[in-house]
Amino acid sequence: MPHTTNFQRARSTQAKEERSAALLRAARELATRSGVRAVTLTEIATAAGVHVSGVRRYFGSREEIYLRLAAQEWDSWAHTVAEALAGRHDVPAADLADLLSGTLAERPLFCDLLPHVPLTLEREVPQETVREFKLAALDAVTTLAEAITASTALTTEQAHDLIAAVTALAGGLWQVAHPPQTLSTLYAQDPRLAHAASDFTPRLTRLVAALLTGLPTGTR
């Protein structure tokens, strides 16, 4: 359940930081449980112990909150992959596919957020907020690309293409593999359609491995 706290109005810098952290924490917990699309700003505020009218002292909108979380998820994923590849060389394509897919599967919120970022989140916030997010994501992609090129035979351009493809696949496959109740009921009623809700990790791993095999130089 989301963490709830009864706050007085935040006046000090520390209190404001605590309130912002509480809102981010509530948004993370609600989205992990119900999905990003289903969470409202009022629900986030209530779970954080903040009146909805007071949220704008800390974040301009629900979209800004989730864009901030998306930046955090990019950073977390990048550093986890980089740590796993540190000091390794000639990593086989199958091992890299397992690593990328497995670390994404461990981040359900990130996978859920990936398609929402370009479709809604970036479109509903001020330009400066988008700039901050994109710079954070760029730093994460740079960290990932450097780790991949240092541990495989992929070039920097290929590493960037791989990251773009993997995250695009993960975002789409996650939505398909975690359907809403209406679709789950439909699949149960008509097994012919149930193939759509495939197991996320195995399919993503197969597709990433196939992509790596098809890159010009491939991994050794």
Task: Record keyword descriptors for this entry.
globular; disordered N terminus; 69% helix; single chain; 220 residues
Q: Can you walk through the features of this model?
A:
The chain has helices spanning 13-34, 41-48, 62-85, 93-105, 108-121, 127-151, 156-177, 181-189, 200-214. The N and C termini lie far apart (46 Å). The protein is globular and about 55 Å long. It has 220 residues and is mainly α. The longest helix has 25 residues, at 127-151. It contains 9 helices and no strands.
The largest sheet is: none
Backbone structural class: mainly alpha
* Overall 3D shape: globular
- What is the helical fraction, as a range of percent? 55-70%
Low-confidence stretches: 1-5
The percent range for strand residues is under 5%
Amino-to-carboxy terminus distance: 46 Å
- Rg over CA atoms: 19 Å
- Helix-strand pattern, N to C? HHHHHHHHH
The number of strands is 0
Tally of separate helices? 9
Overall pLDDT: 90
In short:
The protein has about 220 residues and is mainly alpha-helical. The protein has helices at about 15-35, 40-50, 60-85, 95-105, 110-120, 125-150, 155-175, 180-190, 200-215. The protein is about 70% helix and about 0% strand.
Topology of helices and strands:
Elements: H1 13-34, H2 41-48, H3 62-85, H4 93-105, H5 108-121, H6 127-151, H7 156-177, H8 181-189, H9 200-214
Helix pairs in contact: 1-2, 1-3, 3-4, 3-5, 3-6, 4-9, 5-7, 6-7, 7-9
